[in-house]
Automatic annotation (TrEMBL):
GO terms for molecular function: catalase activity; heme binding; metal ion binding. Keywords: Heme, Hydrogen peroxide, Iron, Metal-binding, Oxidoreductase, Peroxidase. It catalyses: 2 H2O2 = O2 + 2 H2O. This is Catalase. The active site is at H77, N150. The gene is katE. It comes from Alkalihalobacillus alcalophilus ATCC 27647 = CGMCC 1.3604. There is a cross-link at H341-Y364 (3'-histidyl-3-tyrosine (His-Tyr)). Pfam families: Catalase, Catalase-rel, Catalase_C. GO terms for cellular component: cytosol. Residues 30-418 form the Catalase core domain.
Length: 685
C-alpha cells in the first residue's frame, strides 16, 4: 500500500473508493494475481476422460477461495443489514463534551449503521419476536466512535458474566437445534424464571417493541450509562437515544408470522428500497444527562442496565440528526465484516462502572479476533478510521499495511521516539479520574436488587391494546413451553409485576393463577407507550387492488392524493401487467395476491373492477378481511365496497366506504386514516 495519508473526517466515501473494485462489465477474466485466463469451465485433465491434474493452478485458486468464502457468523446479532449515512449536530455540546464531532453545528460526520436481530442465525427471518441491534459507527476526525445500541433500552442481565448463560438459554436447544430465532421454548423460560433480574427486559420483549414495523420506525438505545467529559474535566452521566423521525411503530404478531413466510427479508428490503427511492431514514440523537451530584437522587441505580431513566424524570435532549442515504455495495465486505466495539470512544466520551458495560469492553475485541481472523480487523476498509493511525503493532493474519522503517517499539532513539504519545491538550485520550477503592469481592450493590418496580412501571405505561398484546405474547410463548413446572414458575415470577396481567395469561396455559403478588408501584411513564409516537403518512405502503374494468376516475384521484401525501402505492391484481379501467385508463400491476399478502402493506384500498371474476373476488375478500383483522386502514369503493359488506364486516374505525362524496374528500380521509397507523379500538372478532 501507499504511505498513510491524512483523510478528512468527511471523506469516508472517498476512502472506501480506494478499496472498491471496478465493475466486471467488459473486463477480461484473470486470476487473483492478474494472469489472463483462456478457460473457466473446464479443469485441466489428462485426456478428455482422464483425472484432473494437480498443476491446474486456476482450479486450485478458484476452489480454495470458494472453500473459504464463509467466516464464522456472529454468535448473536448474526442476521444484520446496514447502510451508510451522515450525522449532523444541531448545536455545540461543548458544555458537556470535548468530542469534536459534537462541537460544530452543520458539521457532517460519516456513519455506518448495522441493524440486526439478536437470536436467529444469519439465514433466519427478519420478523421474529426479538430485540434488535442498532449499531452506529461514527468516522470522526479523532478516530472511530461506536454507539452499539439496541431497540430496547434495558437488558436481561446486570453482570456480563451471565451473558453466555442467557444466550445459551435463548438459542436453539442443543439436543435438537430447535427452535430457530425464537424464545418460545423451555430452556429460555427456565432461565428467565431462575434469573428474576430479567423481568423488565421480558416485559419489553413481550411488547410491541419486539416486532417493529421497520428499521426506519424503530428507536435505538445505548442501554448503558456512559460519561461525557468537557474540556474543563467536568463529567456528566449520559444515556444515548435514537428517535426515528417517522415515529416508533410496530406490526402485530399474526402479521410477523405471516411476513416470515411471505418475505423473510421484509425489513432489510424495506430499508434497501427506501434508500434507493430517496426516502432516506432519519433519526434524531437524544441525550439523557444527569449531573454527578445527582447520581443517587433516584429510586433506581443509574448504573443498572436493567433499568431505564424515565423520560419524565430525565428529559431527552435532542442534539442532532442522522440520515441514512446510501446502501452498501457489498453485504459481505461491509455489513458482515464491520466490527463494532463499545470501547471505541473518542476524547470526551468515557465509561462508567456499569458491570455489563465493563464485560462488553472485553468481549467485543475477543469476538472479532476469531470472527475476522486475527488482530488486523481494523484494517478492513469498512472498519478503517478516516484519520491516520500509527503505532508499533505489526504482522498477524490479514495485515494490509506495509509498514516502513526499522523501529517497531516504544521508547526508542533510532526514530526519535516515534510514534509518540501526546497529552490531553493535543487530543490524547485521558481516562476520567474516578476514585475507585474497595475489597475484591463477588457481590452486587443492594441498589441493583429491585427487579420488579420498573417492570410494573412499564406495564402501567401501556395502553389497553398494548397490554392485550403483552398478554397474548405471554400466552403464545408459554404455550410452547412443554414443562408445566417452568410455566408455573414464570407465572409465580410475573405475579410480582402485575397480578392482573399474570392472571390473564395463566388461565390459558394450564397453570394456577396467582393469589397474591404485584407491587405498590402506581407510577407510569407515558413516553414508554407507542400511542404517543409521531404519526405521518410519509413512506407508508398502500396496496391498490384493481381488476379489469376498475373505476379509473376514482382510482386515479386516490392515487394522485396518496402520492402527493408521500404515500407509496402498489398496484395489485390477480396477474402482472397492464390492467384496463372502465374509462380505458391503464395501470400496471407489479404485485399479485400470490406474491404479496396484505401483511406487506400499511393500508389497503380495494376498488375492484366490473370484469373481476369469482376467483378474483374470493382473493380480494380474503385480502381485505385479513387487513381488517390487523387493524389497518381500509378504503373501499365500487366492487370492493360490495365485497366488504358481503362478508358482514362492520364499518369499524378506520374503514372508509365510498358513497357519494367527492373522490378528493374520500382520498383525503384515507390519508388521515393512514396517518393514524392502526385502529386498535376496532372489533375484529
Amino acid at each position: 500500500m501507499n504511505e498513510e495519508k491524512e483523510i478528512n473526517e468527511n471523506s469516508k466515501n472517498e476512502q472506501l473508493e480506494l478499496f472498491r473494485s471496478e465493475d466486471n462489465q467488459g473486463k477480461v477474466m484473470t486470476t487473483d494475481h492478474g494472469l489472463k485466463l483462456s478457460e473457466d469451465e473446464l479443469s485441466l485433465t489428462a485426456g478428455e476422460r482422464g483425472p484432473t491434474l494437480m498443476e491446474d493452478f486456476h482450479f486450485r485458486e478458484k476452489m480454495t477461495h470458494f472453500d473459504h468464502e464463509r467466516i464464522p457468523e456472529r454468535v448473536v446479532h448474526a442476521r444484520g443489514f446496514a447502510a451508510h449515512g451522515e450525522f449532523e449536530v444541531y448545536e455545540s455540546l461543548k458544555p458537556y463534551t470535548m468530542a469534536k464531532f459534537l462541537q460544530e453545528p452543520k458539521k457532517k460526520t460519516p456513519v455506518f449503521v448495522r441493524f440486526s436481530t439478536v437470536v436467529g442465525s444469519r439465514g433466519s427471518l427478519d420478523t421474529p419476536r426479538d430485540a434488535r441491534g442498532f449499531a452506529t459507527k461514527f468516522y470522526t476526525e479523532e478516530g472511530n466512535y461506536d454507539l452499539v445500541a439496541n431497540n430496547i433500552p434495558v437488558f436481561f442481565i446486570q453482570d456480563g458474566i451471565k451473558f453466555p448463560d442467557v444466550v445459551h438459554a435463548i438459542k436453539p436447544e442443543p439436543h435438537n437445534e430447535m427452535p430457530q430465532a425464537s424464545a418460545a421454548h423451555d430452556t429460555f423460560w427456565d432461565w428467565v424464571s431462575q434469573n428474576q433480574e430479567s423481568a423488565n427486559m421480558i416485559m419489553w420483549l413481550m411488547s410491541d417493541r419486539a416486532i417493529p414495523r421497520s428499521f426506519r420506525m424503530m428507536e435505538g438505545f445505548g442501554v448503558h450509562t456512559f460519561r461525557l467529559i468537557n474540556e474543563k474535566g467536568k463529567a456528566h452521566f449520559v444515556k444515548f437515544h435514537w428517535k426515528p423521525v417517522l415515529g416508533t411503530h410496530s406490526i402485530v404478531w399474526d402479521e410477523a408470522q405471516k411476513l416470515g413466510g411471505k418475505d423473510p427479508d421484509y425489513m432489510r428490503r424495506d430499508l434497501w428500497d427506501a434508500i434507493n427511492m430517496g426516502n432516506y431514514p432519519e433519526y434524531e440523537l437524544g441525550l439523557q444527562i444527569i449531573e454527578e451530584k445527582d447520581e443517587f437522587a433516584f429510586d433506581f441505580d443509574i448504573l443498572d442496565p436493567t433499568k431505564i431513566w424515565p423520560e419524565e424524570d430525565v428529559p431527552v435532549k435532542l442534539v442532532g440528526k442522522m440520515t441514512l442515504n446510501r446502501n452498501v455495495d457489498n453485504v459481505f465486505a461491509e455489513t458482515e465484516q464491520v466490527a463494532f466495539h463499545p470501547g471505541n470512544v473518542v476524547p470526551g466520551i468515557d465509561f462508567t462502572n456499569d458491570p455489563l458495560l465493563q464485560a462488553r469492553l472485553f468481549s467485543y475485541t475477543d469476538t472479532q479476533l476469531l470472527r475476522l481472523g486475527g488482530p488486523n480487523f481494523h484494517e478492513i476498509p469498512i472498519n478503517r478510521p478516516v484519520c491516520p493511525f500509527f503505532n508499533n503493532q505489526r504482522d498477524g493474519f490479514g495485515r494490509q499495511t506495509i509498514n516502513k522503517g526499522q523501529v517497531t517499539y516504544h521508547n526508542n532513539a533510532l526514530a526519535n521516539n516515534s510514534p509518540k504519545t501526546v497529552g490531553e491538550a493535543e487530543g490524547g485520550y485521558v481516562h476520567y479520574q474516578e476514585k475507585v477503592e474497595g475489597r475484591k469481592i463477588r457481590a452486587r450493590a443492594q441498589s441493583f436488587k429491585d427487579h420488579f418496580s420498573q417492570a410494573t412501571l412499564f406495564w402501567n405505561s401501556m395502553s389497553a391494546s398494548e397490554k392485550k398484546h403483552i398478554i397474548d405474547a405471554f400466552r403464545f410463548e408459554l404455550s410452547k413451553v412443554k414443562s408445566k413446572a417452568i410455566r408455573q414458575s414464570v407465572v409465580d415470577m410475573f405475579a410480582n409485576v402485575s397480578v392482573e396481567m399474570t392472571t390473564a395469561f395463566a388461565e390459558t396455559i394450564d397453570t394456577i393463577p396467582p393469589q397474591s403478588g404485584g407491587t405498590n408501584i402506581t407510577k407510569s411513564s407515558p413516553a414508554l407507550s407507542q400511542e404517543l409516537t409521531p404519526k405521518t403518512p410519509l413512506t407508508r405502503k398502500v396496496a391498490v387492488v384493481i381488476a379489469e374494468g376498475y373505476d379509473g376516475a376514482v382510482v386515479n384521484e386516490i392515487l394522485k392524493t396518496l402520492q402527493t401525501s408521500g404515500v407509496q402505492t402498489a398496484i395489485l391484481s390477480d396477474k402482472l401487467g397492464i390492467i384496463k379501467g372502465s374509462d380505458n385508463s391503464k395501470l400496471e400491476a407489479k404485485h399479485t395476491f400470490l406474491t404479496d399478502g396484505s401483511v406487506a402493506f400499511d393500508a389497503i384500498y380495494v376498488n375492484g373492477g366490473k370484469k373481476a371474476d369469482t376467483s378474483f373476488e374470493m382473493e380480494a375478500k380474503m385480502f381485505l378481511k385479513e387487513a381488517f383483522t390487523h387493524y389497518k386502514p381500509l378504503a373501499l369503493s365500487n366492487e370492493g365496497k360490495q365485497w366488504f359488506e358481503a362478508q358482514n364486516l362492520a364499518k369499524e374505525p378506520g374503514v372508509l366506504l365510498f358513497t357519494n362524496q367527492e373522490s378528493k374528500v374520500f382520498a383525503a380521509d384515507f390519508v388521515e386514516a393512514i396517518t393514524a397507523h392502526r385502529f386498535w379500538e376496532r372489533k375484529v372478532n
